[in-house]
């Protein structure tokens, strides 16, 4: 397989690993940090970072000719994911919420991509996705966390999966003709501004502490602006469904950071889950077709 054909999936994987630091950053944040504040600061901060970079590099977004409906739907999907997922974590715990929201996303994207983007899933996507989802189930249920059941919490996690899936599917057509960093600048700012009323009701004194400022900087740069820009860069020549499945690499990075930074236990069951997720990623990348000579491809077609 050529290096060129690996650039897109590797960019998505790097973006997923960058996003995986968000859980560690929240765990290391000062007391008083709320999930809603984390979600809103991620979007607003990420948008401001990309806007600053656009000013420096003279790559300012010019959305005049963009499909505005796609942009608005994408921003709404990303903002909705922040609200639904973090509230689900309160209701049924992080482990089950992660398994339902992150694990359910590829399934929803596969269905939406088939009907909306006309990207019919190929056999390799089913095999790689099923293997990765099995690994995610083993990983999250093997953490030793108490499993809580709540119909409301389960519904919120499902809505989180659907919201992120809507973001990925709606943004795909915009990527064909516009710069990923410009797109994410606008979407982050729109999504962040929509969450501002909720952010104003949260305690924000922790932002004035050195640790809080570092956590906010990490959320805005590494876990948001850099992460999503890399994902969208890879998604330009990769289908939405494969992008969402490769995004399951995020729990791998989160687990490794948990072992190394947060001193979380590393069990055989955890390693088995990580191995299955990684095997699913490798299978999808290895079985992906080469891009066409015009640089575009659909990994599912």
Fraction in helix: over 70%
Gyration radius (Cα, Å) is 18 Å
Number of helices: 12
Mean pLDDT: 78
Major sheet details: none
Question: Roughly how many Å apart are the termini?
Answer: 18 Å
Based on secondary structure, the structural category is mainly alpha
Strand content: under 5%
Q: H/E element string? A: HHHHHHHHHHHH
- Give the tally of β-strands: 0
Instruction: Using the alpha-carbon principal axes, give the shape.
Output: globular
Query: Can you tell me the residue ranges where pLDDT is under 50 for at least 5 consecutive residues?
Result: 290-301
Structural commentary:
With 301 residues, the chain is mainly α. It has one domain (6-287). It contains 12 helices and no strands. It has helices at 3-19, 21-27, 35-57, 68-92, 94-116, 123-141, 151-175, 180-200, 210-235, 240-246, 250-260, 268-286. Helix 1 packs antiparallel against helix 9 (210-235) and helix 4 (68-92) packs antiparallel against helix 5 (94-116). The two termini are 18 Å apart. The relative contact order is 0.23.
